[in-house]
Amino acid sequence: MLCSILIFGLYGCGTKGDGAATVSQVVEDEKATAQEGEFEVSINVEQKGENLDVYATITYLGDQDQKTIYHGGSIFFFNVYQVGGDFEHIGGMEQPLLSTDLKKGEAHKVEFNHPGLTELKPGTYEFEAIADISIDDEKMVDTKLEVPVTTVVEID
Questions:
Q1: CATH number of 8-155
Q2: pLDDT digits 0-9 by tens, 3-34
Q3: Of 16, 52, 53, 94, which residue has the fewest beta carbons closer than 10 angstroms?
């Protein structure tokens, strides 16, 4: 069963002369988590100085000591949408099939590095990470998992 948690957070921000927001104070770091089968996925939005630190994690929770997953250039697609606004970033991948070994109970972290994060204008933003994996390289379609997780933050 896919469970997504939607969390709302507030960020205190300043603005540059061009109206773009720079994060100055986070009231509370934001994290949302979803679980699908043996995998737990989370998205995190945190303040790091004047920048947003956005990353996702995937954790294997199954019975084996480790599990190999198969994915494109990244385990995650990262998307950012301005709620009621014009900003939209839809992630994509252009690399061949890769594999990652996940150790049981250890979160594997993937950073979202996009220059537009420092230029977000005041508003409400939805940050989404979609884990797009397969657990068998010979049965990619039959073992494909897509696990989305979303958090919403307000930038003033």
A1: 2.60.40.2360
A2: 332 222 323 333 344 444 444 333 457 899 99
A3: 94
